[in-house]
Design a protein that fits this description.
The chain is α/β, with parallel strands linked by helices and 906 residues long. The chain is 44% helix and 13% strand. Strands 16, 17, 18, 19, 20, 21 and 22 form a seven-stranded mixed beta sheet that branches. The protein starts with a helix and ends in a 38-residue tail after the last strand.
Length: 906
């Protein structure tokens, strides 16, 4: 392409001046992409409201940085709060929810400014008078788009010369807001020609599409049969619709088309295009929930009281967290084990991190300085100064959180150029400016989160969604198409909120505004503008119009786009209606005049469940050095295949760090209380244990169970306060009445038995009776005690037997479960301990002997090449004969149920 081609425009007689095409929906892109007649043009841009204002401001030297709406709202709220005088109609609302009130009033004020409102005109309506006073108080309010348009109208009053020869309007002049109509009038006074882009049916009259277009323009006859030029394609599966449309584009080759991506979203369609070897459209719906945009909100959530460990876990687990992965992993592990800040586990994690960072400096002063600064920066993120959500966070602390987010996102953007980090910098900067404008010394949580939500607005699109070179073009809205195109494809032709608007003005207020020369626009103006833009998209199709709707309700009339109802009388006679689901059964399907061939994929039978699986070569060698535990014995005796997959093959499901649920937190808290209260020696009395538990409870909750203070776990917190002190009292009473002495709580024990069977574990509480014999007490927090009682009755208490064997060896011992929630000590009758005695099938030493014998037989069977899946029907006949102990396989919660096919495909 030569220079002359690039400079070619449609300016005609504009003498080299700009020839602008202006549309209300053209800011995010349009087609054609320029107003020239060649492949490219200079001086013939297609712009939307923001682009048009920028051109005029540049020409007149009025340009200024765009002010985010969140900053304008903050400045307006500050002005409203400083407004003296009588009570206003918004006074009480401002006291209750200042931010929402300021946002609504600013929107009203902007509507009035757009209408040409003069605050000093002496308004008699109380609300208009109050709004005039508010506007006067906010005289230094940062300008919005309507203010910039108004400033241009005022600036052009003298009729200055402009470098613009012509403006062509995509939308009818009548559907432009009042402020834009005044601006267009002023431009004409300045000698700029303002013309309407002509609109006429683009398709030949002899086609169904041509008849549809002429019917839309003036009610022409509908005397044609469907001929494939107008197609409405629906599918209950949006994914299937995307797949078929990808094939449709592939079959058409390089033929011209314009794709309208309703709501500017082609994420799913791009998958279908890519699968068919076609270029991606690259449109992505903006959302506030993208990656780094959440970091600022997390920075504040971590600071509010009560402390929310889940927010901190989200920060630590973020792929590019402000805390380096080597430190974040340690802190996340500590937080998962003890959800709180300040516990021994938490302090140990920080100590390890500090030692590692300083050791890496190798004594170099400069590196040590950087290491200390790095540690301090991490602590500022993870342990900010706590702030009460009601009384509020000091402004300095809030600004510091914004500064941290800005510095982190700016550094990340400098490293990899990801635009999402740049958006995060802008977000945090906007929030920071808004907080300063608001001028509050302290900021309640609700206000801070309102400001962040406002700054996020609709969020950001996916930076990874990039359009690829194609013969066809994609536009984000139907109003972005302003000239005829060979084929128009409207993707996601579903219901929309576009065009909906409410106005707050009463009839009396409207009349007063009209009497003083600034009538507000008709409430239906926005709807008419939207409807006209939809119809233009249909009228610009030359040969084919394809409307595609995917979703479970796509077949319902209510789910289709409002334009479908407008066209219904014509499309009932002229349109070809296609159910895309037919592509799953038929060898061919015709969509939009294109025949698509479909082939069935051969289906292979799924693997069937089987009770016996072959052990791999080298299985025996893999067992060497393996350390067992009581829980691994339980798993292996329940299902040996599960045990082999988990402990020998080390096959694990994917997981992320997470905070324990309420039930697990109560169990952890109970264990921590027992460890603090039952120190070696004579146990405390029941009263003393209960009192001590009450003293420790709040401290330990903050240390290891902080989520219990969150509103959603208030029931569990109440349960902890009511039940845990009473449980500690009952445990103390049990120790006293059985004349037991505490030896150690949470003791790590290990032992090696014959055949190199190594076992390791932690015993909750070890005591001794007056004869010096061990008593093993396993603490259990459970909603139902049935399972533990049945274990004792059936002689299957594997955990107690294992702990006893490791602790007492061949010496006699007794054991039992202390059920914390039920405040009961469940033990065997033969032990003679006072509690809820259960008649068992065998004692603990016999249970341990049964565990070892069963384990030996299962190991022999595995070494012979057989692993038994004990949840599969018919597994019993493959188990070794006379197993002394067999536990029931719990397939419901097994991570491997889809491998052995108990469940089938996930």
């Amino acid at each position: 392409m030569g220079l002359m081609d690039v400079q070619e425009t449609a300016a005609g007689g504009t003498g080299g001046m700009m020839d602008i095409v202006f549309g209300l929906q053209a800011d995010a892109g349009a087609w054609p992409e320029h107003g020239g007649t060649g492949s490219a043009a200079s001086g013939a841009p297609v712009v939307g409201p923001h682009g048009f204002v920028e051109i005029l401001e540049t020409a007149r030297g009025l340009g200024a940085p765009l002010t985010p709406n969140v900053v304008r709202i903050a400045a307006f709220e500050a002005a409203l709060e400083k407004l003296d005088g009588p009570s206003r109609f918004w006074t009480k609302s401002l006291e209750v929810d200042g931010w929402a009130t300021a946002r609504a009033l600013l929107r009203w004020r902007d509507e009035l400014v757009d209408a040409g409102w003069d605050p000093a005109a002496g308004w008699t309506s109380p609300r208009l008078a109050d709004l005039a006073a508010a506007d006067e108080a906010g005289a230094v309010l940062p300008p919005g788009l309507v203010d910039r348009v108004g400033a241009l109208v005022e600036d052009l009053a003298t009729g200055p010369a402009l470098p613009i020869g012509r403006i062509r309007l995509i939308d009818s002049r009548a559907v432009h807001p009042a402020g834009w109509r005044r601006l267009l009038d002023r431009l004409e006074v300045c000698g700029v020609a303002v013309e309407q882009v002509p609109l006429a049916p683009a398709a030949p009259d002899g086609t169904a599409l041509g008849r549809l277009q002429r019917w839309m323009m003036g009610g022409g006859p509908l005397d044609r049969e469907p001929d494939g030029t107008v197609t409405i394609a629906t599918s209950a599966s949006a994914a299937l619709a995307a797949e078929v449309m990808g094939q449709w584009f592939a079959e058409r080759g390089d033929r011209e088309a314009v794709l309208i991506a309703q709501n500017a979203d082609t994420h799913l369609l791009d998958h279908g295009l890519c699968a068919a070897g076609q270029p991606r459209a690259g449109r992505s719906r903006a959302t506030a929930h993208r990656g780094s945009l959440q970091i600022l909100l997390l920075a504040f959530k971590i600071a509010w009281t009560p402390f929310d460990p889940r927010a901190l876990m989200d920060l630590l687990a973020f792929p590019t967290s402000p805390i380096a992965p080597r430190a974040a992993r340690r802190l996340a592990a500590a937080l998962e084990e003890a959800p709180g800040r300040g516990s021994t586990v938490w302090r140990d994690a920080w100590a390890e991190i500090g030692e590692t960072e300083l050791a890496a400096a190798h004594g170099d002063p400069a590196k040590l300085k950087k290491a200390h600064a790095r540690l301090e920066r991490w602590r500022e993120w993870v342990e900010p100064e706590p702030a009460d959500p009601n009384s509020g966070m000091p402004l300095t602390a809030a600004l510091a959180a914004c500064n941290r987010a800005i510095a982190w996102a700016g550094a990340r953007h400098a490293i990899d150029g990801d635009q999402l980090y740049a958006a995060t910098v802008a977000l945090a900067s906007d929030v920071r400016v808004a907080l300063v404008k608001l001028a509050h010394e302290v900021l309640p949580r609700t206000l801070v989160e309102r400001i962040i939500d406002q700054a996020l607005d609709i969020g950001h699109d996916n930076p990874a969604a990039a359009a690829e070179a194609a013969r066809w073009r994609c536009v984000p809205q139907p109003g972005s198409l302003w000239a005829p195109a060979e084929t128009v494809v409207w993707w996601n032709f579903r219901t929309t909120q576009e065009g909906l608007q409410r106005q707050p003005w009463t009839d009396a207020e409207r009349q007063e505004l009209a009497d003083k020369g600034c009538p507000v626009d008709d409430v239906g103006l926005v709807g008419r503008a939207a409807s006209a833009s939809w119809e233009r998209a249909v009228l610009h199709a030359r040969s084919n119009l394809l409307l595609v709707a995917g979703g479970l309700d796509s077949g319902d009339e209510e789910a289709l786009h409002p334009l479908a109802h407008r066209l219904a009388p014509a499309t009932e006679k002229l349109a070809s209606c296609v159910r895309i689901e037919d592509a799953l059964a038929a060898p061919t399907i015709t969509v939009g005049g294109v025949e698509l061939r479909r082939e069935a994929v051969p289906v292979a039978p799924l693997p069937q469940s089987r009770p016996v699986w072959p052990a791999p070569a080298g299985y025996r060698e893999r067992l060497e050095g393996l350390i067992h535990s009581a829980t691994s014995f339980e798993a292996g005796l329940g299902c040996h295949l599960k045990w082999a997959l988990k402990h020998v093959a080390r096959l694990r499901p994917g997981r992320i760090r997470s905070i324990p649920d309420g039930n697990q937190l109560l169990g952890n808290l109970a264990h921590a209380l027992a460890q603090e209260i039952f120190v070696p020696g004579t146990p405390p009395s029941a009263e003393a244990a209960k009192e001590r538990a009450g003293e420790l409870l709040d401290y330990l909750i903050d240390q290891i169970a902080a989520p219990l203070r969150l509103p959603e776990l208030v029931a569990q917190l109440a349960e902890a306060r009511a039940r845990l002190p009473a449980a500690m009292a009952e445990l103390a009473r049990t120790l006293v009445v059985n004349e037991l002495t505490v030896e150690e709580a949470e003791k790590q024990v290990s032992a090696t038995f014959e055949n190199a069977l190594s076992v390791r574990g932690a015993v909750d509480l070890i005591a001794r009776d007056k004869n010096g014999q061990h008593v093993i007490i396993d603490l259990k927090w459970t909603r139902n005690d049935k399972k533990r009682r049945e274990e004792l009755e059936q002689g299957n208490a594997v955990q107690l037997a294992t702990y006893g064997a490791m602790t007492a060896g061949d010496e006699p011992y007794r054991a039992g479960y202390f059920l914390l929630n039920q405040r009961q000590f469940a033990t065997l009758v033969e032990g003679g301990l006072i509690g809820r005695a259960v008649e068992g099938a065998r004692g603990f030493p016999a249970t341990w002997a049964a565990v070892r014998e069963s384990w030996r037989k299962l190991a022999d069977r595995a070494e012979a090449g057989q692993l038994i899946a004990c949840g599969v029907e018919g597994h019993e006949e493959h188990l070794p004969a006379d197993l002394p102990i067999v536990l029931e396989a719990n397939c419901k919660w097994c991570d491997y149920q889809t491998l052995c096919r108990v469940r089938g495909l996930a």
